[in-house]
Design a protein that fits this description.
With about 550 residues, the protein is mainly beta. Helix content is about 10%, strand content about 40%. It has 2 domains: about 280 residues, Sandwich (Jelly Rolls); about 250 residues, Jelly Rolls (Sandwich). The protein is elongated.
Length: about 550
């Protein structure tokens, strides 16, 4: 296609529409050229200079074709062939150098032909540093990459290698309420902003389709050194099925088309935010139950980090009847309960609710204003986990505060623990909220208490009233004798903390492995005059998950 048309989304037009659209484009040409000049876009390839049938240089499984769907005098694009093999399909890669920058938006069009099989997923082009990290390779301070993945049934996921990966392969976010349809052009934008020495966690990856935000990962540390090697300096064409085994492969050769590879400095100038109508999974004003999550096999099919992972616990409370429970009845419902306080005092209520026609039950915690101590406030519940020798675990749950929730002076939230009665090696780590709703991490060991104020770490680490939020925490125990333990946290898929130099076990002793779930929720700061609320307060918890890999909320 002509380069000045690269900003326009492709459409399939009838003959009369072609004449009208050509006139509109001609009338708009001066304004478009002016905007492009200000943005100084880098047009990498629109395929108009190639002969029909020719391959794109260095990528043999490609062919230049015409009639690609845009009303113009020239409408060539690149057709890519994906042949099945033992890894999924052959790796089709090409790198084109870019002027160094810390903020670019890659824009291109993609089209999946009618015979295309999405299978488990595959890679789409992106941006990268001079020596990109990919293929589940180890972390390097000046190396990173950011691409996209199509996923099962046409879902779309951001996919990037940053400095803070907790597993060999990349991180990412799968967009909700979006799936590629076949025989349709889509305008893709991948905006990558790197962190700088003045904002260590200021990196971000934003994915838009036809101008609409599909996935957004903020507060990323893409690099840990700041030099030319770590800048954005490559257009990284990378497209293939995989994964790394035949379960990712299509059943036959399939085809997709690409066009208008363009890079914009910073954010793309003609982008207009349209996220107001984007349905976030946590968005709800009426329901008392958190969103129903994907089944385990669906989650494994759309979240690559869990391919070799394993859930230790999944519970959404939907098997429990609504109403109050006694302590005894609660233990019967949860046989692995070690002890519980709160159900018999009616501090705990199973509440039915729905969202978009989906029935569900969540755990409602009642905070009474007449509580005389934290033992009378909310719930205190510990449960044994199925595996007792875990040293690196991810724990997630959904939480919702009443719309006029009073934070009072602060309180405790769920967490994990290692306990076997050993006075030296036992520990517990939970979240706390303060009087403003900011989150902090509380670690209790036999050496004492340690609190990490995440509100100082980043403003996003804050609970909001009247809406569901998703919390995920990683606990990685330290090596005996070393202060190399790690705690990481995500709130609504935004990383809000990464704390290193954590010592769970004391001295040369190994900390007790992670073996206990602490489902606590209560007002805690009893040393202050106003440590509890002056009225009834309500908090809901749902969809508890424990795994040995990143969980996410999809």
């Amino acid at each position: 296609m002509l380069s000045f048309l690269s900003n326009f989304k492709k459409v399939q037009l009838k003959p009369m529409q072609i004449l009208l659209t050509t006139s509109i484009l001609s009338a708009s040409l001066l304004n478009t050229a002016s905007a492009a000049s200000n943005a100084e876009p880098i047009i990498l390839d629109d395929f108009e200079s190639y002969s029909l049938g020719e391959s794109w240089p260095k990528i043999s499984a490609t062919q230049i074709i015409k009639n690609c769907g845009l009303a113009s005098q020239s409408n060539k694009c690149m057709r890519v062939k994906y042949s099945p093999n033992s890894q999924g399909s052959p790796r089709l890669t090409k790198k084109i150098k870019l002027p160094h920058s810390d903020h670019y938006t890659l824009s291109y069009d993609v089209y999946f032909e009618n015979s295309f099989e999405f299978v488990r997923g595959g890679k789409l082009p992106g941006l990268a540093s001079a020596n990109p990290t990919d293929g589940c390779n180890s972390v390097k301070p000046d190396s990173w990459s950011s691409r996209l993945m199509w996923r099962e049934n046409g879902a779309l996921q951001s996919y990037f290698y940053s400095q803070d990966r907790s597993k060999p392969c990349g991180d990412g976010q799968t967009g909700k309420n979006f799936k590629f349809q076949k025989n349709k052009w889509y305008g893709i934008e991948l905006e990558v902003k790197l962190n700088t020495q003045y904002d260590e966690y200021g990196g971000s990856v934003v994915v838009r389709v036809d101008g609409k935000v599909i996935a957004e990962n903020k507060n990323q540390r893409m690099r840990s050194v700041y030099n030319s090697n770590s800048d954005i300096s490559l257009f990284f064409f990378s497209s293939f099925f995989g994964g790394n085994n035949t379960s990712w492969a299509p059943s036959k050769p399939v085809y997709a088309r690409f066009d208008n590879f363009t890079v914009y400095p910073g954010a793309k100038l003609d982008y207009k935010p349209v996220v107001e109508d984007y349905e976030l999974i946590r968005k709800s004003s009426l329901r008392p139950a958190a969103p129903t999550l994907a089944l385990l096999d669906q989650l494994e099919a759309t979240e690559e980090p869990l391919i070799n992972g394993k859930f230790l616990l999944i519970n959404d409370f939907n098997d429990l009847k609504s109403g109050y429970y006694s302590n005894t009845r609660w233990k019967q419902a949860w046989p692995d309960t070690l002890w519980v306080r709160g159900p018999s005092d009616k501090n705990m209520y199973m509440q039915n609710g729905s969202k978009q026609g989906e029935d569900g039950t969540s755990l409602r915690v009642n905070f009474k204003p007449d509580a005389t101590s934290r033992n009378d406030s909310g719930i205190h519940w510990e449960m044994k986990l199925p595996r007792e020798k875990s040293t690196d675990i991810f724990f997630s749950y959904w939480i919702k505060l009443d719309k006029d929730f009073d934070f009072a002076a602060g309180g405790k939230l769920p967490g994990l623990s290692g306990k076997d009665g050993n006075q030296t090696d036992d520990w517990k780590g939970r979240l706390k909220w303060n009087q403003f709703g900011f989150l902090k991490f509380s670690l209790e060991t036999k050496s004492g208490f340690k609190e990490i104020d995440w509100d100082l770490y980043r403003q996003e680490a804050r609970l909001k009233k009247g809406q569901w939020q998703h919390i995920e925490i990683r606990y990685s125990l330290n090596t005996p004798g070393e202060k190399d333990g790690i705690v990481e946290a995500w709130l609504d898929e935004t990383k809000i903390a990464r704390e290193t130099n954590i010592e769970f076990g004391r001295g040369s002793n190994q900390a007790t492995p992670i073996n206990t779930l602490i489902m606590s929720a209560y007002f805690d700061e009893s040393r202050t005059e106003r440590w509890t609320s002056e009225k009834m307060e309500y908090l809901w918890i749902d969809d508890i998950k424990v795994a040995n890999s990143r969980i996410g909320y999809y």
